Amino acid sequence: MVDIATRVWNHKWKIDPIVRSLIDTDFYKLLMCQSVFRNKPDTRVTFSLINRSTDIRLAELIDEGELREQLDHIRSLSLTRGESTWMRGNTFYGKRQMFTPEFMDWFEALRLPPYTLEKRDGQYELTFEGAWPEVMLWEIPALAVLMELRGRAVLGEMKRFELQVLYARAMTKLWHKIETLQPLEGLKVADFGTRRRHSFLWQDWAVQAMQEGLGDGFTGTSNCLIAKNRDLEAIGTNAHELPMVYSALAEDDAALARAPYDVLSDWHEEHSGNLRIILPDTYGTKGFLDNAPDWLAGWTGIRIDSGDPAAGAEIAIDWWKSRGEDPTDKLIIFSDGLDAEKIVKLHKQFAGRVKVSFGWGTMLTNDFKGLAPDNGLAPFSLVCKAVEANGRPTVKLSDNPNKAMGPVDEIERYKRVFGVGEQERLEVVV
What we know:
This protein is an alpha/beta fold and 430 residues long. The chain is built from 19 helices and 13 strands. The protein has helices at 4-9, 27-39, 58-61, 64-75, 81-89, 101-108, 132-135, 139-155, 160-181, 200-214, 224-230, 241-248, 253-270, 285-290, 294-297, 309-322, 340-350, 362-365, 408-418; strands spanning 44-51, 91-92, 95-96, 115-120, 123-131, 189-191, 218-221, 277-278, 301-304, 331-334, 355-360, 382-389, 392-393. The chain is globular. The two termini are 28 Å apart.
């Protein structure tokens, strides 16, 4: 096992690449990329970095030259033979050849497109523009690079024994969380922490700790490279990006109202089983489910990613019942702002009523709160989102208005079209 503290202390290379593989990304990104490659390959999309934690002034912490070196290195990457073989030949969710030969031929030839980087008011403005299947693959590595460079800036000021103690405390903190989860019968939890991890090495350590500490209760990781290296299940389905872009492409209000279901209709044609997971909160969970076609009720489950998770689960259970479905046969995946105590509470509340699973993100792979001087390694809310599609702005409403994004007039239009009324504002921590 790598001694992370010594590795950090001995960092003397001209460039120590943070992202060393195109599959050091979330599995759902590759699944969505294949869907986009098939259905919307010519759509032009712009992704942009959004730092919700404006008190973290990234442009003052991270050297621009070092950031460019890391991003340029990512542009030099291509799939290795072993990575291609893993994607072409592995079984994902019980299915062989999940990725088609046509998609794999395209992916094997891919180099990520150029980026634009500027500084403004203590923050970096980082954007990616181009064909949707290409630029969408920038999101996860860009976030991982910025999170780790911010961490390196803080760690670089610490001495050798400080680093040893820091990582010992962080390991103890994580192991205590694992011990908190161990008594839960039937627990199913996966690592969803790639995008805002402390570092690749730390995420890899956290995954190994979960494997040992939780056994069969640990179901896998969203990180494809770690899944490959550790012979684990790669976990993931789809994300808000798909309905956001499909909706931006809608020609009128009627087409806009249909867009989130058009996304899932395309998905339905490609995937079955546990890949048929609804993410309903992009434009409000209740309205989405109230207007959903009956065939969606037959899908495997729902992922809850914003708002009050317990309230969202109750809405899902009531919806299944109203559509003649047995909720005990359905799966609810909780994935928003989780930590051990929240997982315990939700598991106890819903186990037996539905099948319950958890996608544990930032507080698994980046909980260094209180461990560094001035709390300098505390996780923060950094995202990289599709902000424009074919020249039109994208919008996300969410079940938490503090997560909403898009021009004000478009947000109001989307609220009208999707019937979204008053919403409870909840703190966005990560």
